[in-house]
Amino acid sequence: MTSDGTIIVEHLSKSFGPVRAVDDLSFEVAPGRVTGFLGPNGAGKTTTLRMLLGLVRPTSGVATIGGEAYGQISRPLRTVGAALEAASFHPGRTALDHLRLYTPQVGVPDARASQVLELVGLSEAAHRRVGGFSLGMRQRLALATTLLGDPRVLLLDEPANGLDPEGIRWLRGFLRALAAEGRTILVSSHVLSEVEQTVDDVVIIARGRLAHASSLAELAGMARVQVRAVSPDAAGLTALVDRSAWTRTDAGDPRVADLWDVDAATVGAAAFAAGLELHELSSRDPGLEGLFLQLVGAVESAVA
Ligand SMILES: Nc1ncnc2c1ncn2[C@@H]1O[C@H](COP(=O)(O)OP(=O)(O)OP(=O)(O)O)[C@@H](O)[C@H]1O
């Protein structure tokens, strides 16, 4: 393992029979940052994480952590902490007993179990049976389990799932602090808004393909105002949009033009000059979530 915990995914593909779950996917995840791994249900996030962990063999391409495939890392549980599926806990075990099951595998002393419980704020519940835990407490316990080996890299599948606003706030602060220590943190989610305040970088996928990868700040800079022009003259509207080379997304009605790279005043002036009757001219800010859906939609319609 090289000194840093950079994750590199290169031309990664995985087919399950006719289903292309991951399709020529490439991206990098940098240490010292929290990266959101985003995409709608079925986009291929879990399959990608499973390939990173050597649990699924890629059809082609490679996925490495610190320059090595997971199977080559000498003490993998001390290097990579992963929480993939909704963790299942034996309901009769206490939180501490659950963690002590794993300490020998990870190769850390039993005392580490109490330390990680303290890190996730569960010390007071250490001797309580997990069967009585709330979903939020289970999520914290799953996170504590991933931290046993003090790993440099954390892969977390939907860690905010089931957390209340207070739990989400806590998770945000916790992950940010771990990243500030130089760790690589990859967090999957199917909604950008859930991780928007947590992540530094985003990797967005759809239909197994890369839709977008950048810092969150760059993505926010792309969130543009959308202008909607509605005319009873569909052919005239299309001719104006084409002539002006504006970017139009399909609104499902030829009399409606949703435009991304122009302001309302410019559209109004051009329509007036062309003698085109408009019944509506409005602008709206689709926000980050709207942009996310647009990026996903562009890939989905290209694949369909
Ligand atoms: N073992 C498998 N056998 C067959 N198909 C699979 C298998 N694992 C995943 N798939 C298919 O691959 C595609 C990607 O699934 P994956 O679970 O990776 O997506 P995801 O982005 O994690 O979705 P979700 O947010 O719903 O968990 C889906 O169409 C899924 O049905």
TrEMBL record:
Domain named ABC transporter: residues: 7-232
InterPro entries, per database record: AAA+_ATPase, ABC_transporter-like_ATP-bd, ABC_transporter-like_CS, P-loop_NTPase
Protease is among the record's keywords: no
Listed Gene3D superfamilies: P-loop containing nucleotide triphosphate hydrolases (3.40.50.300)
A Pfam match: ABC_tran
Entry keywords, A to Z: ATP-binding, Nucleotide-binding, Transport
Lineage: superkingdom: Bacteria
Annotated family: Belongs to the ABC transporter superfamily.
Name of this chain's protein: ATP-binding cassette domain-containing protein
